[in-house]
Write a structure and sequence with these properties.
Layout (H helix, E strand, L loop, with lengths): L1 E8 L9 E8 L6 H12 L18 E4 L2 E4 L5 H4 L4 E5 L6 E3 L2 E2 L2 H9 L19 H5 L18 H5 L6 H11 L7 H8 L13 H5 L6 H14 L4
Parallel strand pairs: 1-5
Antiparallel strand pairs: 1-2, 3-4, 3-5, 6-7
Helix pairs in contact: 3-6, 6-7, 6-9
């Protein structure tokens, strides 16, 4: 089938503002949007820029806004994306555009680092690994699936308005350790997330849960962190 792509372009070296590049691509319905973008770059216009790496929905590097909805280009099929023979592709919102579909991820990763996304435990581990029961592991299993693609954070209206908001992805990463029975840093993370730009900026719009390519219940995780802050309990 022939698909008309409308892609938002911007080259800071020569463009004062963004513009739309339009391309017709021959594609199979079962092709991915990433396949079509690669056809544009390799066969039509080599100046097109976008990120990609594993191309299998694991690295999260090819997150972009497709027909107004955040997605991974490597997971979204042409037949599911095309509307009236057209597909519109833009960079994800809320982060500075470096070039075409490539955004500066540093603000996103700064929020990620702020929640201390690593195990904190100062006790002597002994001769074996720190054990936990299947039930204890299941408590935070969902939030371990995050691949840091930024789809959730850059779909959040609160983040669009206030880039200082720590964002859904960082909260999910904090959740993963706050509810880990082996961790001793929950209080530190809750202090960060209890600040004005922490979890209370969430307005429960559910955009984050709807666009997560790993189907993480992001809004639920945020709610559980809010409950921990209110009650002072982690269980």
């Amino acid at each position: 089938m022939k698909v008309h792509f409308k892609i938002k372009r911007f080259n800071p070296e020569k463009d004062k503002k963004s513009y739309w590049g339009e391309y017709d691509v021959e594609a199979e319905e079962s092709d991915r949007v990433l396949d079509a973008l690669q056809t544009v770059k390799w066969e039509i216009d080599g100046t097109l820029n976008f990120r990609r790496s594993c191309a299998h929905g694991i690295c999260g590097s090819d997150a972009m806004r497709i027909n107004g909805r955040n997605s991974l280009a490597c997971k979204l099929l042409i037949r599911d994306a095309v509307q009236g023979g057209k597909i519109v592709v833009e960079p994800i919102l809320g982060l500075p555009v470096i070039k075409d579909l490539i955004v500066d991820m540093e603000p996103f990763f700064a929020h990620y680092r702020a929640v201390m996304p690593y195990l904190i435990n100062d006790t002597e581990p002994g001769e074996r690994e720190r054990l936990q029961s299947p039930e204890e592991r299941a408590r935070f299993d969902d939030s371990t699936k995050c691949i840091l693609c930024a789809c959730c954070t850059t779909s959040c209206p609160s983040f669009w308005v206030r880039g200082d908001y720590v964002g859904p992805a960082a909260i999910v990463q904090a959740h993963r350790f706050i509810f880990d029975s082996r961790d001793q840093g929950a209080a530190k993370r809750l202090d960060v997330l209890g600040e004005p730009e922490g979890v209370w900026r969430c307005r429960t719009v559910f955009n984050c849960s709807e666009v997560c390519p790993r189907d993480i219940q992001v809004t639920q995780a945020i709610g559980e962190v809010k409950a921990a802050l209110i009650t002072g309990r982690i269980d």
